[in-house]
Specification:
Layout (H helix, E strand, L loop, with lengths): L4 E12 L2 E12 L3 E5 L6 H9 L6 E6 L2 E2 L5 H7 L1 E3 L12 H7 L9 H5 L4 H20 L15 H13 L5 E5 L7 H16 L4 E5 L3 H7 L2 E6 L2 E6 L1 H6 L1 H8 L13
Parallel strand pairs: 3-8, 3-9, 6-7, 7-8
Antiparallel strand pairs: 1-2, 1-4, 4-5, 9-10
Helix pairs in contact: 3-6
GO molecular function: ATP binding
InterPro entries: AAA+_ATPase, ABC_AA/LPS_Transport, ABC_transporter-like_ATP-bd, BCA_ABC_TP_C, P-loop_NTPase
Keywords: ATP-binding, Nucleotide-binding, Transport
């Protein structure tokens, strides 16, 4: 059930030279909700998520996380505060096993320093490593990838690699997880599985979700609220059914043209 505001974008604009990727975009996400951003290709969806994650710094405006201004914080600091993300293009370490890829996601939670980690047989560091491995094994079980846990990530099917990337983002145990087209390139069965995992992360694990997704069936099914971007501007925001009934949205996103009623003729 949505609660207090966890993330707020305040009049965010982003320019690349003379090109405006975002213009005065404002929105707020409540803790505990699934908030989706939709729009046609080039609308600014990934640019907005990149501003939230810290990959891009807005030209104007602010990003607030739990009331704290994080606009100028590096990605590592944002991760430590509880922001996790997946990418539109897979960013796994192909030569590393699934288990090791997911362990990378625990990096910001590890307290042992470099020297202590090198001599991991010391009690404290060893206990910490075991605790992190237990967390990772729980995530592996949750995402049903036990059968590939020791396989190199680069050898997996595309759908499984997307699931491993989600696992790595979840390993941070983020308060807010940013999902950039998590169902892209998947078949129907894989999409259904991924939608189920996202819902469980939200409802059972208590993670707030900010998602970019093109599959409108998925967006309608699992989102609490939806925001629509077009040419870098927010053109609508609200409940999924309200947004999709908006004529402006249907023209921008679905390419629909309003029909002009034909004049009645005398019979």
């Amino acid at each position: 059930m949505p609660g207090s505001t966890i993330l707020e974008a305040d009049r965010v604009s982003l320019r690349f030279g003379g090109v405006r990727a975002l213009t005065d975009v404002s929105f707020a996400i409540q803790a505990g909700e699934v908030f989706s951003i939709i729009g046609p290709n080039g609308a600014g969806k990934t640019s907005m998520v990149n501003c939230v994650s810290g990959r891009y710094r807005p030209t104007e405006g602010r990003i607030l996380f739990e009331g704290r201004d994080i606009t100028r914080l590096p990605t590592s600091r944002r991760a430590a505060l509880g922001l996790g993300r997946t990418f539109q293009n897979l960013a796994l370490f192909g030569h590393m096993t699934v288990l090791d890829n997911i362990m990378v996601g625990r990096h910001h939670l590890m307290k042992s320093g470099f020297i202590r980690g090198m001599v991991h047989w010391l009690g404290g560091a060893r206990q910490e490593e075991l605790a992190h491995r237990r967390e990772v094994e729980e995530i592996i079980d949750f995402l049903e990838i036990q059968h590939v846990r020791k396989a190199p990530a680069g050898t997996l099917s595309y759908g499984l690699r997307k699931r491993v990337e989600l696992a790595r983002a979840v390993a941070l145990r983020p308060k807010l997880i940013l999902l950039d087209e998590p169902m892209a390139g998947m078949n129907l069965e894989e999409k259904e599985d991924m939608a189920r995992f996202i819902l469980d992360l939200n409802q059972e694990w208590g993670m707030t979700v900010l998602m970019i997704e093109h599959d409108m069936g998925v967006v309608m099914d699992i989102s609490h609220r939806v925001m629509v971007l077009d040419f870098g501007r927010r053109i609508a925001e609200g409940l999924p059914e309200e947004v999709m009934a908006d004529s402006h949205v249907r023209r921008a996103y679905l390419g629909e043209v309003e029909e002009t009623p034909e004049p009645e003729t005398a019979g």
